[in-house]
């Protein structure tokens, strides 16, 4: 079994968007655990390493993120890091010297080579400045499927859109120019508008007035805003993958890509569900 290739495939299937460094590391550790469990291996999180801690704690041992006991070979130990960490390299070299299969999962950029006997799983991610002072955020998303009526992805002109898609995109154009009344013009009186709780002002908003208040607050956070919505038809729903970027009121740069799923009935939006990870909107 090619352990590095197998684990690489499992981790490349993990999708996330605009997550902090600790969140990404946690997601990847969980995925490593799931990979080993699928193989039927006994799993240990934060297992004891062969490497002792530095003085004055040398009687205690360091830990590895995940360790696996398997019936057909030596133990497998895995460390997950953002970029290069010299201590990880030294620890895994010691694990390999002790006869364990040592694997270094390094996500993001890195220059340190893996030491002899250590398997390297390198995961590139995209990096951008988060919204509202979140610092750097990271994404690993698959290529999203093209709309059913088109052989390629991309933005669509009104000539290529059906009526519901054109209606929704008009709302995005209104929002981008600060016309909040125009953005909510085609909402049903009892529309349900649901944003992720982690978004500023997120949660469940009901009715055009509540949605307008949310959109005004969102728009007010930008000193300069660029909006690029891309429409996809998914059965009875319209999915908008929305890339926004620009300058926030505090002078920092902001950028994010989210997905909004609309249900339109009789020319009115009755439901909108937003997803922080665009891939979730297509599942």
TrEMBL record:
It holds the Pfam family SnoaL_2. InterPro entries: NTF2-like_dom_sf, SnoaL-like. It comes from the Bacteria. Residues 133-155 are annotated as: Disordered. Residues 168-271 form the SnoaL-like domain. This is SnoaL-like domain-containing protein. It comes from Dactylosporangium siamense.
């Amino acid at each position: 079994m090619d352990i590095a290739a197998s684990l690489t495939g499992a981790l490349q299937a993990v999708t996330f968007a605009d997550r902090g460094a600790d969140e990404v590391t946690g997601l990847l550790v969980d995925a490593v655990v799931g990979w080993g469990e699928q193989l039927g291996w006994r799993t240990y999180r934060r297992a004891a390493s062969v490497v002792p801690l530095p003085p004055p704690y040398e009687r205690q041992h360091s830990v590895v993120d995940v360790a696996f006991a398997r019936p057909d070979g030596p133990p497998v130990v895995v460390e997950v890091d953002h970029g290069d960490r010299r201590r990880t390299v030294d620890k895994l070299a010691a694990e390999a010297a002790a006869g364990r299969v040592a694997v270094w999962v390094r996500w993001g950029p890195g220059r340190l080579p893996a030491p002899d006997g250590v398997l390297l799983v390198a995961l590139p991610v995209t990096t951008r400045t988060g919204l509202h002072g979140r610092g750097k955020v990271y994404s690993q998303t698959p290529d999203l499927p093209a709309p059913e009526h088109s052989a390629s992805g991309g933005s669509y002109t009104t000539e290529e859109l059906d009526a519901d898609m054109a209606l929704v995109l008009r709302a995005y154009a209104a929002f981008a120019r600060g016309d909040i009344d125009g953005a909510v013009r085609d909402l049903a009186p009892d529309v349900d508008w649901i944003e992720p709780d982690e978004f500023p002002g997120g949660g469940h908003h009901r009715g055009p007035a509540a949605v307008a208040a949310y959109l005004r607050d969102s728009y007010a956070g930008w000193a300069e805003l660029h909006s690029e919505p891309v429409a996809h038809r998914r059965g009875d729903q319209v999915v908008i993958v929305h890339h926004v970027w620009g300058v926030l009121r505090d002078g920092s740069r902001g950028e994010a890509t989210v997905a909004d799923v609309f249900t339109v009935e009789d020319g009115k939006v009755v439901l909108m569900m937003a997803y922080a990870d665009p891939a979730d909107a297509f599942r």
